[in-house]
Amino acid sequence: MTDNWHPLDPATAGEYLAGREIMAAAGLLADPVRFAYYGLEEPPKDEVAKHEAAEQGPADRRLRAFLLNLESGESTDVVVSLTKGSVVRARTVDTAAEGQLPIIDSEYHLVEEIMAADPDWQAALARRGLTDMSKIRIAPITAGAYRAPAEDDQRRMVRVLAFLQAGEHDLAWAHPVDGVTAHVDLIARKVLRVIDAFQLPVPTESGDYDDPAVRGPERTTLRPIEITQPEGPSFTVEGSLLRWQDWSLRVGFDAREGLTLHQVELAGRPVMYRASVPEMVVPYGDPRFRYWQAYHDTGEYLVGKWVNSLERGCDCLGEITYLDAVVCGETGEPREVRNAICVHEEDAGILWKHTDIFNGSAQSRRQRRLVVSYFTTVGNYDYGFYWYFYLDGTIECEVKMTGIVFTAGHPGGDHLYSTEVAPGLGAPVHQHLFSARLDMSVDGPANAVEEVDVTGLPIGPDNPYGNAIAQRVTRLSSEAVAARAGDASRGRAWRVLSTERVNRFGRPTAFTLHPEPHPALLASPGSPLAQRAGFAARALWVTRYDPAHRYPAGDFVNQSPGGGGLPAYIAGDRDIDGQDIVVWHTFGPTHVVRTEDWPVMPVTRTGFMLRPTGFFDRNPTLDVPAPPGHCTIEHGHER
Ligand SMILES: [Cu+2]
């Protein structure tokens, strides 16, 4: 433990090993028990505050693990204290009522083996002329929860879809074997049923974008772009603490949530205690036999565990500082991922600019941003999670989506639920709905939220020519009231304000959350998916801070019957005005696939912004100098 150790620092490899020893000594790890999740159990806020005030030594350091017995299916939620060397909690999860643990690594291989050996599966494939099982790739898909007997989903299971990979380098996603699926019991290690719904020919056109025959000759017209910072970047990294210009924040990483940001401060004033994107759901809109296809990539597959190791010049350009991450596989063995988190500084175009027609002053300033990001690959998709901090106090969260769209057969012609991207190859419509958890602390923990709409007013005595525009501000007083839909037609935004600090106009200091104009969850409100992904039905939720409320779809998402997470967190309808509150924002596009998204998708992005609103008394960037030797004419005279 070093001098600048902080209780919110990510867990180290040594700590994971120590935690595993504590669990082993308590008899929790007898074979065949595996880790379905292993991460830091962050200390509560008051303990962190006490540590920082040096009233006490290091806070109780804890780790949390989800343990799965591969033979019995027994699922245990364990917390250990490294400080005390003991098990704090070991609770058996009621998997039927709460949900299953996330999918573990070896289950992917297990499913391939089970499928290859199953006679009904072999017969279904043979009916399609497919007899070489070595060429069949299996996508094990989390099962959801439908709770009808034919769904088999009271057991730990996956449903599978098949793809044909003709050669070693062939892109299997180009060749879906449509119309057939199987339900696989992961504990009994057998196929429960094979459902052969219909047959479509397996599309044959290659999707191998590395193959010159597919992509054509590479273009030769791009000249180099080099980004240099001869004096180095303007930020510093000390352990997990990052400082850049007026910003400071701590960076963490979790196998489930991915990147976590802590204690984000601007000009020495708190803005957010913690920020992350702790859930996402990708529901597909094809109601045929694959109606269950909806990935909760975070709660079911653990996006952080699949973090990429980044490469300078490819993934990130310029002066890059990388941070490593530690994630654990199913044995609880820590794995250090080199260059997992990319930290760098970017030019971001014009910050402000004006040529004054009266006094002749012509000024221009460059915007910059600090970028903290990582990339993860979950099955066919690749997601980049980017946080940007700008000179003017803006915070932006951006998700970049790329990789391979999920495919199905396509009957040709117009089809309601998918786009034909290659002959006979369809890409079903789907949504990517992310949930950001923003533990706000604008000028301290006591915050409140207002919904701000803008609207034109009707013609009347006070508005005779009908040009009036008014802000409609609604204070969101309690948790139930604050479950809100977006409304782009009114420019709807949500203002998170301090109830303790005011600016020079006596108005509360605030940050405003600006959403993007996308629909929320489109699955029918009565659907099993809407039960399980309740968080995604609303653009905004506000809850009273509770250290146990961390996951928008609940702690156990895989095959959960639903109701957990945000809908449960607001059940008490607590007061959120002037309290320590957490703002949760659902964002993300509805993806009607384009032909240009095939065979590998150019990045499409989504996100939201938080902008200071009366947080400063004026533009906080007047002190940003003009680039040396340029851009400045003062009162008609070059400086
Ligand atoms: Cu998509």
Strand % is 35-45%
User: Rg, please?
Assistant: 26 Å
Alpha-beta content class = mainly beta
Query: Approximately how much helix is present in the residues?
Result: under 10%
Whole-number tally of structural domains? 3
Number of separate helices: 8
How would you sum up this structure, described in words?
The model has no long low-confidence stretch (mean pLDDT 96). The longest helix has 13 residues, at 13-25. The protein folds into three domains: 13-91, Roll (Nuclear Transport Factor 2, Chain: A), CATH 3.10.450; 105-215, Nuclear Transport Factor 2, Chain: A (Roll); 235-612, Beta-galactosidase, Chain A, domain 5, CATH 2.70.98. The chain is mainly beta. The structure holds copper (II) ion (CU). Copper (II) ion binds next to loops. Copper (II) ion (CU) binds at residues 401, 405, 430, 432, 591.
